[in-house]
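Open question from group meeting: does this chain pack into something compact, or does most of it stay loose? Before anyone orders reagents, we agreed to write out a predicted structure and look at it together. Recording both the input and the output here so the notebook holds the full record.
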Amino acid sequence: MIELGTKAPFFTLQDHLGRSIASEDLVGKRHLLLLFYPLDFTPT
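C-alpha cells returned:
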C-alpha cells in the first residue's frame, strides 16, 4: 500500500491528440490529479 503523502514518480503519457505529455513538465505550472479508475464492467 502506498503511504499518504508519497510523491508519484514522473511519467509520460499521450493526450487525446497523440502528443506526449511528461508529468515533470507540469510541476509548478499546473495542477495534476492522478485518478485510478477500474475499467467499466470489470468484476469487483
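Observations to bring back to the group:
Residues 26 and 32 are 8 Å apart (CA to CA).
Strands lie at 12-14, 20-22.
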